[in-house]
From TrEMBL:
InterPro entries: CpoB, CpoB_C, TPR-like_helical_dom_sf, TPR_rpt, YbgF_tri. It comes from the Bacteria. The keyword Cell division applies. Residues 95-127 have a biased composition (Low complexity). This is Cell division coordinator CpoB. Residues 42-83 form a coiled coil. It comes from Arenimonas metalli CF5-1. TPR repeats lie at residues 181-214. Residues 93-127 are annotated as: Disordered. One of its GO terms (cellular component) is outer membrane-bounded periplasmic space. Residues 20-97 form the YbgF trimerisation domain.
Length: 269
């Protein structure tokens, strides 16, 4: 009886040990499967990270390429503008007489510039004094280089004070240049961007009074109006803007003048 009882008691224990072994095996298999899945997921994540890094580097290269192309285009456009600016000015002044002190070219008359660069052109009373001296030879390459250096200081490096100084020197050194009207315009711009409205107004007035017909006339009249308004001369400024709209209809200057007049009208309401 004792042996039988022992066998009966032992049988469930053996069955229980087998069941636990099977369970352990199942758990191990499940853990192995999960580990393999995690490893595979990590590998895929790493591959994706490498792919994204490669794409980011490619995009950076493209951005750098585009930035270089944009910079090259800016340089090309700037150079084309400078060349065009100079060529058109020379075409406008191509009929000017050789004598820089002649009545047809009053901007060239003074033997020395006035104290204020914006009023450098001489009056008729000063012209005979200039006639007494023979005009000095001008190096066209040096003339153009001086003009472009002054313009570069303003539109390329945004150094308005330096630009004004260089344009003053240009007007002093090359009073007979066909670029004189343009130089007065950019001199006015140099003063305008630093809010030196009085000197800017003088420069624009000089261009308008002594170089009528210049292709900068519309823009100069527009900026003259801006200066007048900034100096509290609102009625005169509005009249200048209306002249721009009437005399230079269809131009960019006219569009800006009309826009400013609408803004001023709204302010009056």
């Amino acid at each position: 009886m004792t042996v039988v009882a022992a066998l009966v008691a032992a049988t469930p224990a053996a069955a229980q040990r087998l069941s636990l072994g099977e369970r352990v095996t199942l758990l191990e298999n499940k853990a192995n499967t999960e580990n393999q899945a995690a490893v595979q997921g990590n590998i895929e994540a790493q591959n994706r990270i490498v792919q994204l890094q490669s794409e980011v580097q490619s995009l950076r290269n493209q951005i750098e390429t585009l930035q270089n192309e944009i910079e090259q285009l800016k340089q090309t456009n700037r150079q084309q503008y400078l060349d065009l600016d100079g060529r058109l000015a020379r075409l406008e002044g191509g009929a000017a007489p050789a004598n820089p002190a002649s009545p047809q070219n009053p901007a060239a008359a003074p033997a020395a510039p006035a104290a204020n660069p914006a009023t450098a052109p001489a009056t008729a009373a000063q012209a005979p004094a200039a006639d007494a001296a023979a005009p000095a030879a001008v190096d066209p390459a040096a003339e153009e280089a001086a003009y472009q250096a002054a313009l570069d200081a303003l539109v390329e490096r945004f150094e308005a004070d330096e630009s004004a100084r260089l344009f003053q020197r240009f007007l002093r050194d090359y009073p007979a240049s066909a670029l004189v009207p343009n130089a007065y315009y950019w001199l006015g711009e140099s003063y305008y961007v630093t809010q030196n409205y009085e000197l800017a107004l003088e420069a624009f007035q000089t261009l308008l009074s002594q170089h009528a017909g210049s292709r900068k006339e519309g823009d100069a009249l527009l900026k003259l109006g801006y200066c007048q308004i900034a100096l509290g001369q609102r009625a005169a400024g509005e009249e200048s803007l209306r002249q721009v709209s009437a005399r230079f209809a269809g131009t960019d200057a006219a569009g800006k003048a009309e826009s400013r007049l609408r803004t001023l009208a709204l302010e009056n309401r």
